[in-house]
Design brief:
The protein is 33% helix and 29% strand. With 413 residues, the protein is an alpha/beta fold. It is globular, with a radius of gyration of 22 Å.
């Protein structure tokens, strides 16, 4: 009997590094999680490496925790990539169908996606993902999978995500020196959707807002396709900094205050209510107004949601997504965030908890694990088909995908 495949995901954030290990059994459509590891993230800022040695140590610590729990070694991972250096553009590709009977083949899909890659980007940027949004066969628009159809002209509209090459190489180096190989690199703006969205939500129109420490990633989906991705350079770290300045404390104390007493609903706090910092710090010993803290937090979260709203306005989807906003990341757990998001974005809003997996549920039933589980689900669906040309290698699509059919069909409901 064949041994089940071991797959693992590695989410390297500015605050925490999370690793999840799973067994992918042939008869199951979802990964069975057997190990989880988490470690403080040091050596990174805003998703970019600023200290190689500290980053390697943090990654190694997270990997070792997951290995101990799983009882299995981790040799390769699906790596999540975040950071303010990520950018996205839309592109089109057009080809003439090559078959004598004008029947579209996988080779034609391969060629039209390669044609869509022919965009001008700076030499110091790398294409991480090229995602087909929709195909057009002659004059028939809105085609999701054109193979087998008859036509003369094949077009594709794509969404391309790029990253700053030096930042990517530095992170790759740290992961490799931690003793594991990289199966694939997936932008963090795409990964959470795999874990928290249903096919119906992707069809109706939805935005996933992942509020991390160093920034906020958003992914917009409609008609089953990726419509837009972006990274907003404001996150939980900025909230903590604001609290530290506002109540005149150290960053560590401000973080504890945010976690233990934080909220985005000033109306629920009595004007006379105070926080005794001596209970959570040996350095900061004074009393501070709880309402002041909550007002500071609310203001920064309101700014984050207004920036998300601006991104939606760019693609004419401001207030126009029926499935609303799904909030993930550790920053989504603060009391009152859902109500504030609903009011600021003028959309339905809810917390996105990871789904579509089996195994260790209690440790990862948490929006902070949405990206990590999303990476794992991505890996379980595409395991063995590295997205070269669409991913990290840059060789031909045919060689990288193994089967264009499986890959393209998996992208759509």
């Amino acid at each position: 009997m064949a041994r089940p495949k071991i797959i693992a995901s590695l989410d390297i954030g500015s605050s925490k590094i999370r690793t999840v290990v799973a067994i992918q059994e042939s008869e199951s459509s979802v990964p069975n999680i057997i190990g989880v590891g988490i470690a403080p993230s040091t050596g990174l800022r805003k998703g970019s490496v600023i200290d190689v040695e500290e980053t390697i140590n943090s990654i190694s610590s997270s990997l070792e925790d997951a290995e101990r729990m799983a009882g299995e070694p981790i040799n390769h991972v699906f790596l999540g990539l975040g950071g303010n250096h990520l950018e996205s553009i839309n592109s089109k590709g057009v080809i003439a169908v090559s078959q004598d009977k004008n029947e579209i083949s996988e080779d034609d899909v391969d060629r039209v996606l390669e044609a869509a890659q022919a965009v001008t980007i700076p030499s110091n940027r790398r294409i991480l993902r090229i995602i087909p949004k929709t195909f057009t066969v002659d004059e028939q628009k809105g085609v999701k999978y054109p193979v087998g159809m008859t036509g003369i002209r094949l077009e594709v509209e794509t969404h391309i995500v790029t990253g700053f090459e030096p930042a990517i190489k530095n992170l790759e180096k740290c992961v490799l020196q931690s003793g594991v190989d990289i199966d694939d690199i997936i932008p963090n703006s795409l990964a959470p959707s795999e874990a928290v969205l249903s096919k119906r939500q992707k069809e109706l129109g939805v935005v996933v807002v992942d509020i991390g420490c160093g920034g906020t990633s958003i992914g917009v989906f409609e008609d089953g396709a990726t419509l837009h991705t972006a990274v907003i350079p404001v996150g939980g770290e900025n909230v903590t900094n604001d609290v530290a300045i506002g109540i005149r404390t150290s960053i560590d104390t401000a973080e504890k205050v945010k976690i233990e007493y934080g909220s985005t609903i000033p109306e629920d706090v009595n004007d006379r209510e105070t926080i005794d910092l001596s209970l959570i710090s040996k350095i900061d010993l004074h009393l501070v107004s709880k309402k002041q803290v909550v007002e500071i937090i609310q203001a920064r979260y309101h700014e984050i949601f207004l920036l998300v709203k601006d991104e939606l306005a760019k693609i004419h989807r401001d207030g126009m997504l029926p499935a609303g906003a799904i909030l993930t990341g550790a920053g989504a757990k603060l009391p009152g965030v859902i109500d504030l998001a609903r009011e600021s974005l003028n959309l339905p809003a809810q917390i996105g908890f990871p789904q579509n997996y089996d195994g260790v549920v209690d440790k990862i039933d948490d929006p902070a694990y949405a990206t990590t589980i999303g990476l794992l689900i991505w890996g379980s669906r595409f395991e063995g088909r590295h997205h070269a040309g669409l991913g990290m290698k840059g060789v031909s699509l045919k060689k990288g995908l193994g089967s264009i059919k499986n890959w393209v069909k998996n992208l759509f409901p």
